[in-house]
UniProtKB/TrEMBL annotation:
<feature type="repeat" description="Solcar">
    <location>
        <begin position="78"/>
        <end position="162"/>
    </location>
</feature>
<keyword id="KW-0812">Transmembrane</keyword>
<dbReference type="GO" id="GO:0005743">
    <property type="term" value="C:mitochondrial inner membrane"/>
</dbReference>
<keyword id="KW-0496">Mitochondrion</keyword>
<feature type="compositionally biased region" description="Basic and acidic residues">
    <location>
        <begin position="271"/>
        <end position="283"/>
    </location>
</feature>
<feature type="repeat" description="Solcar">
    <location>
        <begin position="1"/>
        <end position="65"/>
    </location>
</feature>
<keyword id="KW-0677">Repeat</keyword>
<keyword id="KW-0813">Transport</keyword>
<keyword id="KW-0999">Mitochondrion inner membrane</keyword>
<dbReference type="InterPro" id="IPR044677">
    <property type="entry name" value="SLC25A3/Pic2/Mir1-like"/>
</dbReference>
<keyword id="KW-1133">Transmembrane helix</keyword>
<keyword id="KW-0809">Transit peptide</keyword>
<comment type="function">
    <text>Transport of phosphate groups from the cytosol to the mitochondrial matrix.</text>
</comment>
<dbReference type="InterPro" id="IPR023395">
    <property type="entry name" value="MCP_dom_sf"/>
</dbReference>
<dbReference type="InterPro" id="IPR018108">
    <property type="entry name" value="MCP_transmembrane"/>
</dbReference>
<keyword id="KW-0472">Membrane</keyword>
<feature type="repeat" description="Solcar">
    <location>
        <begin position="179"/>
        <end position="257"/>
    </location>
</feature>
Length: 283
């Protein structure tokens, strides 16, 4: 996905030159050759590996933690809220590891002559902007990633429920592991589309911010109109949809391979069923 990400960033950073995803690929190939499309692969791979590990790991921790606080019945009734809170908490922590890599990636991809590798980019950022050069994009990164991750986990969990309830012709317990993983990928792709949409304006701000010295997120955002904020959305939907589907597929596949618990979609607790039956009986 690095080539798509590179073109997306260039569309956001210089929309006058890069008119769209296909035009962006064409110009990048003509001017720099095919090797240029891999620019930024190292910070992308390292940064999002760190972030993914933190995000998925802490999500499970916070989901259990918050679930115990509010209890079994409320955990089911307000499960979407539970998913949103757990994922937001996880992302706050995960982005601290991502921010330095994101800063280097954007510089490599959008600032010609700055650096071509992570090894070159980091010392330059440190020399020119100090430690804050790595974290000046943290707040807008949270602005992008927290809504993104909240949508990613909540929409995935609820899409899985919908697929098993209305689309898959048999209960999850009767599906093979392969069929279950296919449902996981489909739900992940749908979640990724929603993720890309809710987080794209902040993503554009981050691209511009890391490209420009001495600017703040508010200054960058004020300088852009709505059309500019949504530049590169097509490339990002394709990239994020595919990545999110694959992330969930790999995550669930790892659980299958390691024989880790894979809880089915949540069902109403018996205690809550009895309460509802009692209420309906009184009527």
């Amino acid at each position: 996905m690095t080539p798509v990400d590179l073109v997306k960033c260039r569309i956001q950073a210089n929309s006058d030159k890069y008119k769209g995803i296909f035009n962006g690929f064409k110009i990048s190939l003509e001017e720099e050759g095919s090797r240029a499309l891999a620019r930024g692969w190292a910070p992308t791979a390292i940064g999002y590996s760190i972030q993914g590990f933190g995000k998925f790991g802490f999500y499970e921790v916070f989901k259990v933690f918050y679930g115990k606080i509010i209890g079994e019945e409320k955990s089911y009734t307000y499960r979407t809220f539970l998913y949103l809170m757990a994922s937001a908490s996880a992302e706050v922590i995960a982005d601290i590891g991502l921010a330095p890599m994101e800063a280097a990636k954007v510089k490599i991809q959008t600032s010609p002559g700055f650096a071509s590798t992570l090894r070159e980019a980091w010392p330059k950022i440190l020399h020119e902007e100090g430690l804050m050069g790595f974290y000046k994009g943290l707040v807008p990164l949270w602005m992008r990633q927290i809504p993104y991750t909240m949508m990613k986990f909540a929409s995935f969990e609820r899409t899985v429920e919908v697929l098993y309830k209305y689309v898959v012709p048999k209960p999850r317990a009767e599906c093979s592991k392969g069929e279950q993983l296919l449902v996981t990928f489909a739900a992940g792709y749908v979640a990724g589309i929603f993720c890309a949409i809710v987080s794209h304006p902040a993503d554009t701000v981050i691209t511009k911010l890391n490209q420009t010295k001495g600017s703040t997120a508010i200054e960058v955002a004020k300088a852009m109109d709505m059309a500019t904020l949504w530049k590169g959305i097509t490339a990002r939907i394709f990239m994020i949809g595919t990545l999110t589907g694959l992330q969930w597929f790999i995550y669930d596949g790892f659980k299958v391979a390691a024989r880790l618990p894979r809880p089915p979609p949540p069902t109403m607790p018996e205690s809550l069923k009895k309460k509802l039956e009692e209420k309906s009986g009184k009527r």
